[in-house]
């Protein structure tokens, strides 16, 4: 999707839309509403607690080292004499919440990531987005992959039954097919060998069904087998829009977490509580993931640019009044 956009064809703010663009926007909103209702119902029916999000915390996702991250600015502000950061993701909150009062949880979580302005043109990056972020104590990667496959399968099946008219209007009723389970799994190493360093972009263009990609080196909280060097994590890729979910089995042992934090040069001061709980043996094994809702709905509704799914577009480099 690289570079098919420029400032003249970026999604516009509500006040600038033509009549037909308003109709399309309203139709995508119906698909978003349906998707939110369907997915949250599935999670609630599967025994998950629905937690409300926070947006200011001392501890948030370091987003480092993640080869996909391109952050221009991190927002920090002082409140009540403490420095807090806007939520990059609620991963740290999820690890502690699932280890304590909420063994199965999900959150519709606003994520603020001030992406570099040039990412406006990828069509798949916005600087504020929402994840359906979930975590399950004592679950394996396989458990999560099965849960996600069921969730996507049920969602697409229901959309074809209940939102026929909208999918026809958006011209996706033929292209968004009910996916076959289980989804195919690829190892990132094999994709690098086959496609080179731009494997993410190339595979996203090539696939016609959702796929899993595993074994991706990234932040300290994803589980890494120190003996084999393999990462027990997984990304769900959707045609065209690419990575739409990242998840993993998590680290919970103090010795490994501290070693990885130091190896990555991440500031220990921002993860004091997580480190303390893991040292005390109170951090529990878990697996989970986060579904980017705007990318998911972009795929379903055939959006050209992901900001089309937002009422108030958050295109990198462009700040509207609303
Ligand atoms: P991450 O924590 O970076 O793995 O992100 C989790 C999910 O959030 C991704 O798989 C995407 O669906 C979504 N996401 C991440 N960054 C962005 C962005 N800049 N714009 C829109 N969605 C994003
Ligand atoms: Mg990711």
Features:
binds magnesium ion; 3-stranded antiparallel beta sheet; globular; 322 residues; alpha+beta; 8-stranded mixed beta sheet; BirA Bifunctional Protein, domain 2; binds adenosine monophosphate; 13 strands; single chain
Short synopsis of the structure:
33% of the residues lie in helices and 21% in strands.
**Unreliable parts:** none
Order of helices and strands: HEEEEEHEEEHHEHHEEEHHEH
What's the oligomerization state?
single chain
Gyration radius, in Å: 19 Å
**Residue share in β-strands:** 15-25%
The count of β-strands is 13
Distinct ligand kinds: adenosine monophosphate, magnesium ion
Task: Specify the CATH homologous superfamily.
Answer: Bira Bifunctional Protein, Domain 2
> Residue-averaged pLDDT, rounded?
97
Biggest sheet: strands, sense, closure? 8 strands, mixed
Number of helices: 9
């Amino acid at each position: 999707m690289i570079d098919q956009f420029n400032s003249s064809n970026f999604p516009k703010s509500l006040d600038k839309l033509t009549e037909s663009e308003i109709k399309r926007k309203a139709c995508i909103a119906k698909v978003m509403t349906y998707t939110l209702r369907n997915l949250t119902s599935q999670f609630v029916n599967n025994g998950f607690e629905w937690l409300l999000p926070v947006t200011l915390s001392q501890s948030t996702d370091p987003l480092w080292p993640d080869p996909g991250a391109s952050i221009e600015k991190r927002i920090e502000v002082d409140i009540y004499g403490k420095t807090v950061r806007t939520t990059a993701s609620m991963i740290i909150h999820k690890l502690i919440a699932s280890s304590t009062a909420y063994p199965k949880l999900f959150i519709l979580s606003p994520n603020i990531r001030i992406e570099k302005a040039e990412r406006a043109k990828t069509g798949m990056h916005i600087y504020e987005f929402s994840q359906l972020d979930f975590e399950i104590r004592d679950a394996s990667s396989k458990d999560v992959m099965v849960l996600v496959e069921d969730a996507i399968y049920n969602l697409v099946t229901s959309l074809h039954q209940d939102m026929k008219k909208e999918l026809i209007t958006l011209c996706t009723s033929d292209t968004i097919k009910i996916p076959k389970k289980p989804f195919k799994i690829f190892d990132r190493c094999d994709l690098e060998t086959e496609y080179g360093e731009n494997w993410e972009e190339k595979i996203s263009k090539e696939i016609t069904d959702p796929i899993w990609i595993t074994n991706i080196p990234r932040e300290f909280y994803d589980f890494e087998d120190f003996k084999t060097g393999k990462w027990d994590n997984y990304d769900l890729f959707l045609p065209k829009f690419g990575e739409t979910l990242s998840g993993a089995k998590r680290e919970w042992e103090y010795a490994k977490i501290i070693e990885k934090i130091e190896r990555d040069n991440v500031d220990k001061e921002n993860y004091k509580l997580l480190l303390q709980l893991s040292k005390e043996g109170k951090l529990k094994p878990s697996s989970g993931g986060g579904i980017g809702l705007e990318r998911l709905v972009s795929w379903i509704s055939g959006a050209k640019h992901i900001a089309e799914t937002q009422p108030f577009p958050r295109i990198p480099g462009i700040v509207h009044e609303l």
